[in-house]
C-alpha cells in the first residue's frame, strides 16, 4: 500500500469513529479531519466516499439535529436554525427541517412546556421579575418575543383553569 492509501484508510477510520459518536454535517467532519492533519485531497476523497455510502448527508443530519434541539432541548426556531448554519447546513435545508420539526412540536407547545417546568420547580407564584427573567431565558432559547409575551399572559389563565 502506498503512503497516500494508508493516510486515506486512516482518515476514513477516523471519520467512521466520529460518525459512530453522533451524526455530523459534512462541514463538521471535514473540519475534524483537517484538525487531525489530513490533507485536503484525502479529506475530499473520504467525504466523497462517505456521501456515496450515504453516511454523510447534510439533510438527514439537519433533520436529526433539529429534532433533537426542538424536542429534547426545547429550543426556538432561531436557535435551531443558527445551530444548523453553524454546522454548515445550507439555509434552505435549515428552514425546511425546522418547518418539518414544528409539525411535531410547535414553538407554542415548547414555550408552554418550559413555563410549566418553571412553575413546577418554583413553589412560589411567579411575580413580574420572575416572568421577565423567564422571558429573557426564552428569548435566549430562540423564541420570538411576541410569542413569548402572548404565552406568558395566557399561561396564567391556562394554569388557573387546569388547577380548578
Amino acid at each position: 500500500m502506498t503512503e497516500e492509501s494508508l493516510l486515506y484508510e486512516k482518515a476514513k477510520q477516523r471519520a467512521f469513529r466520529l460518525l459512530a459518536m453522533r451524526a455530523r454535517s459534512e462541514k463538521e467532519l471535514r473540519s475534524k479531519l483537517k484538525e487531525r492533519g489530513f490533507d485536503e485531497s484525502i479529506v475530499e476523497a473520504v467525504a466523497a466516499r462517505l456521501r456515496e455510502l450515504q453516511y454523510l448527508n447534510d439533510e438527514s443530519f439537519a433533520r436529526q439535529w433539529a429534532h433533537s434541539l426542538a424536542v429534547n432541548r426545547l429550543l426556538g426556531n432561531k436557535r435551531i436554525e443558527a445551530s444548523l448554519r453553524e454546522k454548515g447546513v445550507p439555509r434552505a435545508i435549515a428552514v425546511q427541517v425546522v418547518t418539518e420539526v414544528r409539525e411535531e412540536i410547535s414553538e407554542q407547545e415548547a414555550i408552554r412546556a418550559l413555563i410549566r417546568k418553571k412553575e413546577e420547580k418554583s413553589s412560589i407564584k411567579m411575580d413580574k421579575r420572575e416572568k421577565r427573567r423567564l422571558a429573557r431565558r426564552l428569548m435566549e432559547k430562540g423564541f420570538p418575543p411576541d410569542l413569548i409575551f402572548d404565552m406568558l399572559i395566557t399561561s396564567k389563565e391556562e394554569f388557573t383553569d387546569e388547577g380548578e
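Confidence is low (pLDDT under 50) at residues 158-164. The CA atoms of residues 27 and 88 lie 5 Å apart.
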